Task: inverse folding
């Protein structure tokens, strides 16, 4: 029993696109604002990734199943109220059952609403495609966003706070690089990461035509 | 025309369904959230008063060591019922602990301030909630900073000075990158002390 049993070739292609040639942060350039803001600590990055992935899946499900009913001119407001509702649901559940994480994330949970991956994918994909493919796309984008966010957070937390997931990992006498805890540090890191990933994808054929 | 009506109907129905979902989630989570807030407040009161506790025994230690006292009526919300009255807290040794709140740079800062029995010296300060900029003003809740408040005087006025400038008994050092949040916290504490300490004195006389 492998994933191939459940997913046909196209499902797998859509899923893979989400974290390769249509990677939300590196290629499409969506979700950069939250990638900069919440990637200062790994713990926050994990919770944020889980939140975004959940809301993305829920949005994909709702928008793609309602796609034939959604009036052309009311598309954006439909996405907005759907996304906003799920974000509030995530926030309430975090507050109720994991108050520590909810406290650490502060205002950022509410800011999932403004994460452009959600609106972007809803408009570009879910409103025209079937439920199954939309969910695959949401999953793929969720993976792409989460892995990037967590990787950047790992570098920033070690360099900026000297810890990883709250545990001290740097040797005694380590001077924390405060710039890494601030937005400019995130800009440098993310910029370098995008540069590297684009160089690699160009070398490896560039048939994607980004 | 039909299209327009369809559109309005669609938006209204979707809005209605989602609103219903939100209202039920809110009703479902409300008791849990209230319990979490109460727990966080009690933990903060103990921490500010310098009482050691473990998570599992927190509730018991709180009820043994801390006595809630109701504020005078002038400070109660209008028409409040007996069990919803606002309280401050005292320990057997006479230390006074009360909640403070006010606006920070980004959002409300609230927490708990513990004073020695003389009502002029800080015993401890905790921050229960703040949404200052993470990594900058957000660092006001780090223990390293909050420890600086202990044994400082709050009269005539409490001051958070630029780093390295604090010299008097009513001054502590702030830290770089958090000037605005430190100013806000200083302001909140002074206002809340002026508002509550006279009322607390009055309540204790009775």
Result:
């Amino acid at each position: 029993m492998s994933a191939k049993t459940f997913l046909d070739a196209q499902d797998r292609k859509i899923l893979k696109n989400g974290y390769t040639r249509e990677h939300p942060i590196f290629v499409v350039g969506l979700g950069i604002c939250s990638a900069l803001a919440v990637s200062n600590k790994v713990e926050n990055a994990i919770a944020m990734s889980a939140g975004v992935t959940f809301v993305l899946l829920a949005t994909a499900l709702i928008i793609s199943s309602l796609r034939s009913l959604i009036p052309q001119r009311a598309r954006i407001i439909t996405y907005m109220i759907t996304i906003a509702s799920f974000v509030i649901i995530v926030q309430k559940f975090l507050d109720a059952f994991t108050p520590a994480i909810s406290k650490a994330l502060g205002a950022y949970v509410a800011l999932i609403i403004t994460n452009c991956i959600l609106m972007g994918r809803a408009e570009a994909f879910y409103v025209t495609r079937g439920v199954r493919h939309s969910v695959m796309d949401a999953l793929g984008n969720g993976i792409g966003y989460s892995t990037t966010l967590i990787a950047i957070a790992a570098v920033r937390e070690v360099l900026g706070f000297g810890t990883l997931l709250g545990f001290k990992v740097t040797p005694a006498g380590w001077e924390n690089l405060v710039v890494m805890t601030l937005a400019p540090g995130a800009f440098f890191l993310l910029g370098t990461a995008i540069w590297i990933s684009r160089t690699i994808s160009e070398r490896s054929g560039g048939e994607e035509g980004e | 025309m039909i299209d327009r009506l369809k559109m309005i109907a669609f938006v209204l129905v979707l809005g209605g369904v989602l609103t219903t979902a939100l209202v039920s989630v809110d009703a479902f989570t409300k008791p849990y959230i209230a319990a979490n807030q109460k727990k966080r407040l009690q933990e903060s009161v103990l921490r500010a008063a310098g009482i050691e506790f473990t998570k599992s025994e927190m509730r018991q230690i709180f009820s043994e060591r801390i006595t809630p006292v109701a504020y005078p009526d002038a400070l109660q919300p209008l028409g409040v019922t007996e069990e919803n009255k606002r309280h401050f807290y005292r320990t057997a040794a006479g230390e006074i602990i009360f909640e403070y709140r006010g606006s920070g740079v980004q959002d409300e800062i609230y927490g708990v301030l513990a004073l020695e029995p003389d009502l002029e010296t800080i015993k401890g300060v905790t921050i229960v909630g703040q949404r200052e900029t993470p990594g900058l003003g957000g660092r006001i809740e780090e223990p390293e900073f909050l420890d600086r408040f202990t044994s400082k005087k709050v009269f005539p006025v409490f001051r958070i000075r630029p780093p390295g400038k604090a010299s008097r008994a009513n001054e502590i050092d702030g830290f770089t990158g958090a000037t605005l949040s430190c100013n806000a916290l200083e302001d909140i504490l002074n206002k809340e002390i002026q508002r509550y300490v006279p009322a607390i004195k009055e309540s204790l006389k009775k």
User: Anything to note?
Assistant: Residues 67-205 of chain B form one domain. The interface with chain A takes residues 3, 6-7, 10-11, 14-15, 18, 21-22, 25-26, 29, 32-33, 36, 40, 106-107, 129, 131, 134-136, 138, 177 of chain B (CB under 8 Å). The radius of gyration of chain B is 22 Å. The mean pLDDT of chain B is 88.
